[in-house]
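INTERNAL AUDIT FORM
Audit reference: QA-55
Scope: verify that the stored structure record matches its stored sequence.
Auditor: D.O.
Record contents follow.
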Amino acid sequence: MLTLKGRTVVKTVEIETGKTLLDHAIANGIDVGFSCTRGTCARCRVYVEEGRELLSEPNDAEYDRMDEDELDAGYRLGCQAVVKRDGDVRAVNRTYF
């Protein structure tokens, strides 16, 4: 299960492997901010509270937008963090602005 907290909406939904956290938010009406879906705007930045090991590794787009300390602390770009395996994931939208 994926519990995702947007700006005003919190929902727990079924995980679909192969989809990003942002894909899940859009499909389920969770108000995660975004302006693109390519990792350039960083508005979809999330803090992954649980289940980091179930997600893809950070990619170049994330390293271009965030520093390594943020990534190590559990921050990801929702549009780049792909769910790779079933399990429990909890994430909160933590945009910069």
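Auditor finding: record pair retrieved intact. Residues 24 and 50 are 16 Å apart (CA to CA).
Action required: none
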